[in-house]
Here is the input.
Amino acid sequence: MRRLIDTHCHVYDEAFREDLPQVIDRAREAGIDRLLLPNINPGTMDDLIRVCDTWPDMCCPMIGLHPEDLAQDFITQLDGLKTILDEDRREGGGHRFIGIGETGLDLYWDKTRLDDQIESFRIQIEWSLMYDLPIVIHSRDSFIQLVGVLSDYRDRGLRGIFHCFSGSVEEAESLMGFDGFMFGIGGVLTFKKSSLKSVLPLIPIERVVLETDCPYLSPVPFRGKRNEPSYMVNTAESVAQAYGVSIDEVARITSDNACRLFRL
Ligand code: NI
Here is the structure.
């Protein structure tokens, strides 16, 4: 039976408050048997954990601080998250966090916080290394800065995902140089004008994982609507077309990739 893993979804978002059980049922029916949940900020942590406690066989928690969610006193935000992470990693710890994120850099709306974003990103990279957990990286309008930061950790065994990858051939080639990283492919691939259709086949499929980033970035034909994990089948079909393989092959390989990276 086909199984898929949504490596990046925010099903704890208030967009799902009314009907999350049905959303989870539809995901299962579509063959999606794992949902990996990156965190946004300290305020979203409780909702994220509650969802993972309700569907423990399906939903896996991550912990981190999104670059667009940095408070002025972001160090206090990070200290609070680190305390939760430390408790979790002690023997018998409770939440079983499988990754760090989402973190990274975002200069799309606000360029004035770049230094703070870099500091927050570096702190979370150190957590990833210290606890040997993959890191989920969000990067928008910040490619040069991203490569600049990551280059400092090249030989330290850092591993993770370039979430929502939609870059150029040159960007793909540059990021492929970071050996421990997978490329997270989402609904953008299905958009009619997406240049990712021609870039993707240059990336070995062994380095691709699937994601929705729901409730955002719905694939065609749901574009503009609330996204949900079951829609990831449409993205998987586009990935199959890009590589010229069957959707079952895409499901098997990308799920293996996710299991290897997150040690599921
Ligand atoms: Ni996200």
